Amino acid sequence: MKNVNIHEAKTHLSRLVEEAVRGEDVVISKAGRPLVRLVPVPAREGARPLGLLAGKVRESEDWWAPDPELEALFYGTEDEEDPEDVVVPEKPRRPR
């Protein structure tokens, strides 16, 4: 097991990472007290297979059909008044 202090670890991080990848046990300490251990990330076993859910997920027939409620929120409805025809009452003035 290789024990190094934080300053040395910052200075030689690349070398310490390579040693950890090769299987050497590297421990980083602060004031002589071990804090962390460098360990290699395990390699993936082969490529991830594509299509794991093929044939298991189905769409309903109307999945891509427009939603009338959602379209009304964005585009309004045909029976709504034209904004130019809407009369907005004036705000009453406060007496001074």
Outline of the structure:
The chain is α+β, with helices and mostly antiparallel strands.
Strand content: 15-25%
SSE order, one letter for each helix or strand: EHHEEH
Adjacency order of strands in the biggest sheet: 1-2-3
Radius of gyration: 33 Å
CATH architecture classification of the domain at 2-38: 3-Layer(aba) Sandwich
**Broad structural category:** alpha+beta
What's the average pLDDT? Answer: 86
Quick one: biggest sheet? 3 strands, mixed
- CATH fold assignment of the domain at 2-38: YefM-like fold
What is the level 1 CATH name of the domain at 2-38?
Alpha Beta
* Tally of separate helices: 3
Strands, count: 3
In helices, the fraction of residues equals 10-25%
The shape is elongated
- By CATH, the superfamily of the domain at 2-38 comes out as YefM-like domain
Report on the structure:
This protein has 3 helices and 3 strands, in the order E-H-H-E-E-H. With 96 residues, it is an alpha+beta fold. The mean pLDDT is 86. 2% of the residues are buried. The protein has helices spanning 6-11, 13-21, 68-75; strands at 2-5, 26-30, 33-38. It has a 3-stranded mixed beta sheet with strand order 1-2-3. It has a domain at 2-38: 3-Layer(aba) Sandwich (YefM-like fold).
